[in-house]
Amino acid sequence: MSKLEGESTFKRLRNRYRMVVMNDDTYEEVVTFKLTRLSVYVMLSSIFVILVGLTVALIVFTPLRYYIPGQVTQQSGREMRTVKMGIDSVNRQVEYSEKYLDNIRRVLKGDVAIPLDTTLLEVPKDELSED
Length: 131
Fold this sequence. Notes:
The chain crosses the membrane at residues 38-61. The chain is mainly alpha-helical. The chain has 2 domains: 1-71, no CATH class; 72-112. The protein has helices spanning 2-14, 37-61, 74-109, 125-130, and strands at 16-22, 29-36. It has a two-stranded antiparallel ribbon with strand order 1-2. A hairpin with a 6-residue loop joins strand 1 (16-22) and strand 2 (29-36). The radius of gyration is 42 Å and the shape is rod-shaped. The model has no long low-confidence stretch (mean pLDDT 85).
């Protein structure tokens, strides 16, 4: 059964049709086309592929690509990397200064925990030999 349906589908694609363009006033045939469904499908598919190809070529080979979000020039990419490195270094400096100020605040408040155990101190050997 499926073999017959496949043959009938192929046969329908190969059937010939005539398309006539006529002058409405004089009923004179201006142009006549002999077409099949398959030829119309192939023609429309070809036109679609050509239009897509031309659009892609227009975008790729012209400056229009820079208007697409996410596309950047080499120069702007370099500038963004430089700015990012600068921001990272500034963030690091701010972090260090915050730690420094926090330590000064703790010292001024007296919250510094000084170890009272003297065994943790490292005494130089020169001082031991003088005694």
